[in-house]
Write a structure and sequence with these properties.
The complex is a heterodimer of chains A (107) and B (122). With 107 residues, chain A is mainly beta. In chain A, strands 2, 4, 5, 6, 9, 10 and 11 form a seven-stranded mixed beta sheet that branches. In chain A, strands 1-3-8-7 form a four-stranded antiparallel beta sheet, with no helix packed on it. Chain B is mainly beta. Helices cover 0% and strands 50% of the residues of chain B. Chains A and B meet through β4, β5, β9 and β10 of A and β5 and β10 of B.
């Protein structure tokens, strides 16, 4: 199975900060990497697909980059409503796998 | 509006069985692959099963292989998960999700249900 490792596991930042979360795959996955946001008690929501494409309705402050094994999710200016846990997920392998999650808090 | 609504969760004893359902609306179910994802209390997301649009291809995570069975009824716009030989560690919120179409979509999980809680306990 392809292992997905996110860093950091948790992150505290101030409103307006630029926030970066990284995701590393245990083998090359081209651009088959997606990012999800999950707020407390809610279902996950797709933010970024195919590594860098913004899902419809998602604010433009969210962006994704990377290819191969290393990927990044960036929030250009953190807003209070961005408090959530963020997950990466690979779709290269038939056995889809998620990263362990990054919990984002407001400082 | 695309909607996925899970049902069938509840309390079950270890070794017992449960069948989850996911009712779809707002899109043509027969055109999409579907999957089940679960989340144990306080833990991360775990993909557990995939079924192609025609049911010709099915995959399971090792953690549920041989115990869980995924199926679908396109005419009834429904997805199912039959769970047998349940264990304490199967306690989780179970989500159904739709897989986006086409390589350019990244085969992402573009719509999710609200989840149904399964508790395995004596």
């Amino acid at each position: 199975d392809i292992q997905m490792t996110q860093s950091p596991s948790s992150l505290s930042a101030s409103v307006g900060d630029r926030v970066t979360i990284t995701c590393r795959a245990s083998q090359r996955i081209s651009n088959y990497l997606n990012w999800y946001q999950q707020k407390s008690g809610k279902a996950p929501r797709l933010l970024i697909y195919a590594a860098s494409s913004l899902q419809s309705g998602v604010p433009s402050r969210f962006s994704g980059s990377g290819s191969g094994t290393d990927f990044t999710l960036t929030i250009s200016s953190l807003q209070p409503e961005d408090i959530a846990t963020y997950y990466c997920q690979q779709s290269y392998s038939t056995l889809r796998t998620f990263g362990q999650g990054t919990k984002l808090e407001i400082k | 509006e695309v909607q996925l609504v899970e049902s069938g969760g509840g309390l079950v004893q270890p070794g017992g069985s449960l069948r989850l359902s996911c009712a779809a609306s707002g899109f043509s179910l027969s055109s999409y692959s579907l999957k089940w994802v679960r989340q144990a209390p306080g833990k991360g997301l775990e993909w557990i099963s995939y079924i192609s649009s025609s049911s010709s291809t099915i995959y399971y995570a090792d953690s549920v292989k041989g115990r869980f069975t995924i199926s679908r009824d396109n005419a009834q716009n429904s997805l199912y998960l039959q769970m047998n030989s349940l264990r304490d560690e199967d306690t989780a919120v179970y989500y159904c999700a739709r897989e986006s179409q086409g390589k350019s979509s990244g085969y992402s999980f573009d719509y999710w249900g609200q989840g149904t809680l399964v508790t395995v306990s004596s």
